[in-house]
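Morning, I've got a small favour to ask if you have a moment. It would help a lot if you went through both lines with me. I owe you a coffee for this, so here goes:
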Amino acid sequence: MPRCRVLPLPDHQTAVLTDGVERLRWHFGAQYPRPFFYPLAGPSGESLTRMGHPGAENHDHHRSVWFAHAKVLGVDFWSDRTEARIRQKHWLVFEDGDDQAVLAVRLGWYDGHDPQELLEQDAIAVVRPGNEGETLVELHTTFLPKAESLEFQQTNFGFLAVRVAKSLSEHFGGGRLTDSEGRTGEPAIFGRRARWMDYSGPVVSAAADAPETAAGWEGITYFDHPANPGYPQHWHVREDGWMGAAVCMQGPIITRRAEPLALRFLLHAHGGALNAERANAVADEFSRRPGYRVVRSMRKHRQFELEQT
């Protein structure tokens, strides 16, 4: 049996397992305004992300790890306050392997008033096991507008969002926010450019019968890719446990049918406190890895497959 497996589950969920242990799960049910990943497990098996904000009821749209954008032709695809929806149309690739597992899906973005799509998104998650239970989630996504072009307007909110577990946040837990330039904390980092961002902190067991005590440190390092427009990105970060590469913070981005917008990010669920030297090595390795896109397959019993770019 392959070491890394994709496991479709009931209720519109898909899990990714390494050595028989679930490390990541994709949720795409219609009860949610947009799909998301939860949990993203650290080496301990505990989730390093959470659902919602620890202190604000109007942040229920913060669902662990998700794709969204706040201003698409004036439509808010970020919050839960509008009728705009992102829906999974179908899965494209489920691929098991000893080195990695791949989950690829096609999403449609709808403004809530017109049944026609504004744009189509292919999202690819390449999940690789790291050392001692660590997990690397490489995310490749392509945005194809239905019109000849489409503007993602200027905003701090988009495209890939990460809400970390309560215990990892600086304000609600005992965690620390650090960027690739050695800066720490929201005031020093917000709006600044960096190759990567890290949120690390104490891990607390979610088991009902376990005492709420920390069992070591773990964290998530979030990497930008040199091929992304605006690299290195300006970052939207908060001491309450939030981080996102704000691709449109300084201005809008146009995506065209003839040249779709493609973005690549990497999430590293690591053990221990941040090791900046190691993070830089992971960033360098990520920059050298080939990209992926989904193409029609000529192989038997396959409609789609991945192609390196």
